[in-house]
Design brief:
The protein has one helix and eight strands; from the N terminus they run ββββββββα. By secondary structure, it is mainly β. Strands 1, 2, 3, 4, 5, 6, 7 and 8 form an eight-stranded mixed sheet that branches.
Length: 132
């Protein structure tokens, strides 16, 4: 992905946008380093590697977002820990239809109760610092 979110011919990440800062259970953890106008810190919209996933952590090192990409290098789904019309953050999932991102589907509620055990169990190894 380049500075506009396009692919880099050389492979890897644009040095103006992202850098790999570690891994969690074999998934690359990325850190946003660019200041491109209009970006909010979410993970890149395109992946250079088909079928890969990336993780974004908050500045305190806790989980913020997991994004799975398809073979077409476009996002398939996100798992986020944040607020959507809520006072407290909660774990939720968004799916993609092209570039359109769905409304959140809760995995936990605001109180931290797990309401989608299958999804939670599948991805809990990436949820660094989330206490339920």
């Amino acid at each position: 992905m380049g500075s506009s979110g396009s692919y880099l011919k050389s492979g890897g990440f644009s040095s103006q946008e992202w850098e790999q800062v570690g891994t969690i259970n074999g998934v690359k953890v990325l850190k946003k380093i660019g200041t491109k106008k209009g970006t909010k810190g979410n993970l890149p919209f395109y992946s250079n590697t088909p079928g890969t996933a990336y993780i974004l952590l908050n500045s305190d090192g806790t989980f913020s977002q997991f994004r799975q990409y398809g073979e077409d290098r476009m996002p398939e789904f996100d798992i986020d820990y944040g607020r959507h019309d809520s006072d407290k953050p909660y774990l939720h999932m968004h799916t993609y239809n092209g570039k359109a991102r769905s409304k959140p589907t809760p995995i936990t509620n605001e109180d931290g109760d797990i309401i989608n055990k299958d999804l939670y169990e599948k991805y809990k190894g990436f949820l660094k610092g989330i206490k339920l």
